[in-house]
Design brief:
The chain is of the alpha+beta class. The protein has one domain (about 20-295): Lipovitellin-phosvitin complex, beta-sheet shell regions (Roll). The chain is about 15% helix and about 55% strand. It has helices at about 115-120, 140-155, 160-170, 175-185; strands at about 20, 25-30, 35-50, 55-75, 80-95, 100-105, 125-130, 135-140, 200-205, 205-220, 220-235, 240-255, 260-275, 285-295. Strands 3, 4, 5, 6, 7, 8, 9, 10, 11, 12, 13 and 14 form a 12-stranded antiparallel sheet that branches. The chain has a two-stranded antiparallel sheet with strand order 1-2. Strand 5 (about 80-95) and strand 6 (about 100-105) form a beta hairpin. Helix 1 runs antiparallel to helix 2, helix 2 packs across helix 3 and helix 3 (about 160-170) packs parallel to helix 4. The longest helix has 15 residues, at about 160-170.
Length: about 300
C-alpha cells in the first residue's frame, strides 16, 4: 500500500475578472453582472513519486471536472457566486497495485459505490462570497455538499459514516473549499497596472504560496498574466503526513470583453518527505508534479 493516503483532488473555483482603463493603466478586478454564467472544464494530472529503500512507487491522479459558475448577487463590491459541479471523472493509479480508484460521477453503475458517492456531488450548489480583488470572504454549503455525498454512498455503519464525513470535509467542506478557491481567485492588486508591471500576494491553507505576478500583455480582445510562486505543502491526517516545498508557474489568457478566462495553465513541482503512522519518524523522500488546465466551454 502506498505510503501516502490517496486524497480526493479538490475542485477549484475559476478566475473571474475584467478591467477598466484610465490614463493608460489597467485596473484588474472582478466586474460581473447578476445572471452571468460560465461553464469550465478542468483537466488535472498529478504524479506522486516515493522512494522507499531504493524502490520507487508512483501514484498518478487524473481528474476531469465540469463546473458551472453563476452570479447571484452583488453588494458593495462583494460578489455572491453559485458554483456547482456538472460532471467529475477521477482515476487513481499505483505503479505497484494498479488502479486504486476509478470514478465516473455522471455515468455511474448501480453497484459502483464510489461513483455513486461522487454523483451526490453533482448539481449541489455552494455559495461563494468574493471581494472585487478575488479574496474569498466566505463559502457556504460545503457541509451540506459533504452530507449529500455521504448519503449517496448508502453507507450504514456509524463509524464508517463518521470517518467518511471527516475525510470528505478535508476536501469539500466550506473551509477547504475556501482555501482552494482563493488559490485561483485572489490574484489582483488594488493599484492600477501598466503592461509589464509586477505585484505580489500570498495564498494560505494546505498549499501556502508566495506569488509574483506580471501583466504580460493586453489588447482589445485578451490579456495575459503570468505568475511564479514558491510553495509549501503540509498535509496531515491520522495515519500519515507530507511536508513539501517547491515552485509553481501559472499562465492566464482571459477575454478583455467578458473578463472571464479563455484558458489557464498551472504547473507545479514540489519535493520533501512523507511520514506514515501517527508517531513515525521515518522519512520517505517524496516528489509531486502537477499540471492543471482550465478551459472555458459552451454553456
Amino acid at each position: 500500500m502506498s505510503a501516502i493516503k490517496v486524497k480526493y483532488p479538490s475542485i477549484f473555483l475559476l478566475l473571474l475578472f475584467t478591467n477598466t482603463f484610465a490614463f493608460g493603466q489597467t485596473i484588474l478586478r472582478y466586474h460581473l453582472a447578476i445572471g452571468d454564467s460560465f461553464t469550465v472544464q478542468q483537466d488535472a494530472h498529478q504524479s506522486i513519486t516515493q522512494d522507499t529503500e531504493g524502490m520507487k512507487h508512483v501514484i498518478t491522479n487524473d481528474l476531469q471536472g465540469i463546473i458551472k459558475f453563476k452570479v447571484e448577487g452583488i453588494k458593495e463590491d462583494i460578489y455572491e457566486l453559485q458554483v456547482s459541479f456538472k460532471d467529475l471523472k477521477l482515476k487513481v493509479n499505483s505503479s505497484l497495485q494498479g488502479d486504486l480508484l476509478v470514478v465516473d460521477a455522471l455515468e455511474h453503475e448501480e453497484g459502483d459505490q464510489q461513483s455513486k458517492m461522487f454523483h451526490g456531488l453533482l448539481n449541489i450548489p455552494v455559495t461563494v462570497y468574493m471581494s472585487s480583488q478575488g479574496e474569498i470572504l466566505e463559502v457556504r454549503g460545503g457541509d451540506q455538499l459533504v452530507a449529500k455525498m455521504v448519503e449517496a454512498s448508502n453507507m450504514q455503519d456509524p463509524d464508517g459514516i463518521k470517518f467518511l464525513e471527516n475525510s470528505l470535509s478535508k476536501e469539500f467542506g466550506s473551509k477547504a473549499l475556501s482555501e482552494s478557491y482563493e488559490q485561483l481567485t485572489y490574484l489582483y492588486p488594488k493599484k492600477p497596472l501598466s503592461q509589464g508591471d509586477l505585484w505580489e500576494n500570498e495564498f494560505h491553507g494546505k498549499l501556502k504560496a508566495k506569488n509574483n505576478w506580471v501583466l504580460e500583455g493586453i489588447n482589445k480582445d485578451s490579456l495575459q498574466i503570468a505568475g511564479t510562486s514558491t510553495i509549501r505543502m503540509l498535509v496531515e491526517d491520522e495515519n500519515s503526513s507530507m511536508r513539501l516545498e517547491g515552485t509553481q508557474k501559472s499562465k492566464v489568457n482571459a477575454s478583455t470583453k467578458t473578463g472571464f478566462i479563455k484558458k489557464m495553465h498551472v504547473e507545479g513541482n514540489a519535493s520533501g518527505v512523507a511520514f506514515v503512522g501517527a508517531n513515525s519518524e521515518t522519512e520517505i523522500p517524496t516528489q509531486i508534479q502537477s499540471t492543471i488546465i482550465y478551459q472555458l466551454i459552451e454553456n
